[in-house]
Amino acid sequence: MTTTGRVTFVGAGPGAADLITVRGARRIAEADVVIWAPSAVDAECIREHARADADLVDFSRVTPEEITDLYRKAAASRQVVVRLHAGDAATGGGVQEQHDLCVRLGLEVEVVPGVSVVAAAAARIGRELTQTEASSAVLLSPESSERVSEFAQLQTTMAATVSGARTGQFVEKLLQGGYSEATPVVVAYKVSQADEVLVHTTVGELEAVVKKHKLYRPTLFLVGAAVKAPTRRVSASATTSVDEPLRSARPSRWSRRAASRIATRVDEPVPARPDEPIPAAAPVPDAPVAEPNPAWTAVEEIQQSVRKPAEEQAPKPKLTVVAAEKPKPPTVNASTSAPRKKPVRKPKRSAN
Question: pLDDT of 99-109, one tens digit each?
Answer without folding.
Answer: 999 999 999 99
